[in-house]
Design goal:
Aspartate Aminotransferase, domain 2, seven-stranded mixed sheet, 13 helices, binds pyridoxal-5'-phosphate
């Protein structure tokens, strides 16, 4: 960015390679070649994550909807989600007529733990959607073992966690099914888009029927066996995604660098901490800060002042159970009593600008402005 231009909170890195691949797709990927970019992207992405099957979708939200539908989750069932996440994690539970149950999170990773999940399990619990928040990951092996013992299906929402690893396995390789987002704000983008992955061939077959209006894969007879959904990605987007995937190491290094710059820029502060992890495998999609409540700078005030200084930011998610969409429900009332950590940390957390286009000077400008605000301005 130039010295005074607005610093964006999120955004991709696009090069000539992406432009070339999309031009090639728009020129050639039609007729018999129409599916080529999609097949190529799905194959490469499945290989990168370490999963047997991958399906391109128009969004990650569609992926969660398909996962729940393919698993046969519906009315009368409960699905546990973290209280701190984007509503896209929980909305699809309502799409299939089931009930979201909001669990508390760990104060460091902001992700689910076995204890917070266990506190929400009832005889109606069918699944838990574990979110890799901002790139951090819960103890997936422990959660998977707990889910197994409890007869619950684990779904991994890895929308924000491309490239993160835990216990030597990549984000998106856990659970019966996992999903990613390729929204324009994500580390790897297709503009809008998502991917569903699984190792289960039967489940993947079911997903493929559900995502194509109830047609069997390869159907040319326009024969629909049930009323289902139309959740497809275009070949042009898939060509962009495949090109981004070729550059994945560079994209991840960009995110790691931004996190390091913030850690260095705010290292001297006792009253602002950057969310970090003992797990060296985390790649922070969004670097986030926790501002000490003693400063008086809650996230809404801080964001407003940063915005005046031409700096975009985002609030750490508000607990789902506090949102107008849910707050009048009895489940939200229970969650508000139960989820002490989510309610304690949320007011004091912001996502700092983490766009791949940022330079070290941009990050320093954000750090300097935060320090200036906290030290010198009215409380
Ligand atoms: C944790 C989480 N889950 C799901 C989604 C949904 O992704 P999409 O916008 O591709 O539907 C997002 C998107 O930002 C997300 O952050």
């Amino acid at each position: 960015m130039t010295e005074n231009s607005r610093i964006p909170v999120a955004g991709p890195s696009i090069t000539e390679l992406e432009a070339k691949r999309v031009l090639d797709a728009v020129t050639h990927a039609w007729y018999d070649d129409a599916n080529r970019p999609i097949d190529d992207f799905e194959t490469a992405f499945a290989r990168y994550i370490g999963r047997a099957h991958a399906g391109c979708l128009p969004s990650c939200t569609a992926g969660l909807h398909l996962a729940l539908a393919a698993l046969g989750i519906g009315p009368g069932d409960e699905v546990i989600v973290p209280d701190l996440t984007w509503i896209a994690t929980s909305a699809p539970i309502s799409y299939v007529g089931a009930q979201p149950v909001f669990a508390d999170v760990d104060p460091t990773s902001l992700c689910l733990t076995i204890d917070t999940v266990a506190a929400c399990v009832t005889p109606r619990t069918k699944a838990v959607i574990a979110v890799d928040l901002y790139g951090a990951m819960p103890d997936m092996e422990a959660l998977a073992a707990f889910a197994d013992e409890s007869g619950i299906t684990l779904i991994e929402d890895a929308a924000e966690a491309l490239g993160s690893e835990i216990a030597g396995r990549r984000a998106g390789s856990f659970g019966r099914v996992s999903v990613f987002s390729f929204h324009g704000s994500k580390t790897l983008t297709t503009g809008e888009g998502g991917m569903l992955l699984t190792d289960d061939p039967d489940l993947f077959r079911r997903v493929n029927v559900l995502r194509d209006h109830g047609r069997r894969p390869g159907d040319r007879a326009f024969n629909n066996f049930e009323v289902a959904f139309k959740y497809k990605m275009s070949g042009l987007q898939a060509a962009l995604g495949a090109a981004q995937l070729e550059r994945v190491d560079e994209l991840l290094e960009g995110k790691r660098r931004i996190h390091r710059w913030y850690k260095d820029g705010l290292a001297e502060r006792d009253d602002v901490s950057i969310y970090s992890s003992d797990n060296a495998g985390v790649v922070w999609w969004m670097t986030s800060a926790h501002v000490s409540p003693e400063t008086g700078w809650d996230k809404d005030r801080l964001q407003a002042e940063l915005s005046r200084a031409n700096i975009d930011s985002r609030p750490i998610f508000r607990p789902l159970s506090s949102l107008p969409a849910y707050r009048e429900t009895s489940e939200a009332a229970r969650a508000r009593d139960r989820n002490q950590v989510a309610y304690r940390v949320s007011p004091w957390g912001i996502n700092l600008p983490s766009a791949l286009a940022l330079t070290q000077a941009d990050v320093q400008r954000v750090c300097d402005e935060m320090i200036y605000l906290i030290d010198r301005r009215i409380r």
